[in-house]
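haha ok so turns out i had the wrong file open the whole time. this is the CORRECT one, sorry everyone. sequence first:
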Amino acid sequence: MINQEQVINDAIKKCGIEKLNRMQQSVLNAGQDKDLVLISPTGSGKTLAFLLPILLRIDRAATTTQAVIVAPSRELALQIENVWRSLGSGLKVTCCYGGHPLRVEKKSLETPPSVLVGTPGRLADHIYREHISLADVKTLVLDEFDKSLELGFEDEMEYILEGLTTCNWRVLTSATEGLEIPAYTGLVKPLRMSFTTQMKTNRSLEVKVVKSPEKDKLETLYKLLGELHGASALVFCNFRDSVERISEYLTSRGVENDSFHGGMDQIDREQALSLFRNGSATVFVSTDLASRGLDIPEVKNVIHYHLPINEEAYVHRNGRTARMYAGGTSYLILNPVEEIPAYIKLEPEEFFLPAEAHNPIESEWVTLTINKGKRDKLSKKDVVGFLYQKGELKKEELGVVEIKESRAYAAVKREVFKSLMKKISDQRIKNMNAKFN
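then structure:
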């Protein structure tokens, strides 16, 4: 019999958390006697909330897959995998998602993981090809289920759930209330836990209107970014081609930014997220794909370049700022033919821009990219040691380091980047030749 309290305490300590928040503790206290519907905003810690009970449910003596977690996006699936690894349980996890070779995942699945995480399409593909056995799965999590429905994954999820004949605990998470739960999910009289009201009361969000004199808002956006004093900004658009157009325009004006949408290759999406997380790019231009389910830091400013398609989209976008007790600002850019949406009840104050634009402040960080990653057995420790020793960096000159499947990214202070490149350009990292740029 395992000491459950000790298991949880050890896991929390390993992932660097002092104590669970109210929502996480409530989920843990609820036990696993009843199926669970958890309603809580993006960024509130839902992932850890459902992973800790799974940790208690895993039979360490078993050699089969015991828990399946379905997530709507590659980034969310990878985030769940990373949080599980941070718990330091020693139990195998495999993450399956589109955008990289199926054969890599097939090889990993030859030794069944205790926990299987994946996107609906890729999991369904593996099940169809009989790479995965669901015979001993006791736990199912449908994370950000409302988003999966929105993205049209209903058929794939229904196909996956058909094979869960031994599952006795099911968890469904959502960031929105009022969700109708389809019968195929198999949830039986679930316990509903909602924390949306609690999170809203903790927010300090200012909403401001910025008027664009022209129908095309590019120049207005540029002026607005110049007034943010280098603080992080997430610019939301409704269309992929708009994301690319805005990003290209900002780049042409010397604004360091990154773009993000569902049509990009996985490696490009990973790089964009890494540069935004480490502060190299303070401006992030995206579709609503970035409004939830992504592991990105709290941003100071949310900019609605295009008006949200509905109130739900508006709420999710704004949820990227002013989380918990922090403050943030949401800007709506309106051209002469647009009006404030009816769902915004209180009239926002107008934010006036100067006649002459101020150039947006340059980030103090630059990203070093290394063309080696996890598949080359490169670790964060390897990169940090290399940059301290061969690159002669001081601790304060090195920022966030991330290791991906085939690349590594390290934030370096701008003023030392050129000298660093000269020192490491002909060096080997972990006895491997590598490209640094």
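The chain has a mean pLDDT of 91.
again sry for the mixup
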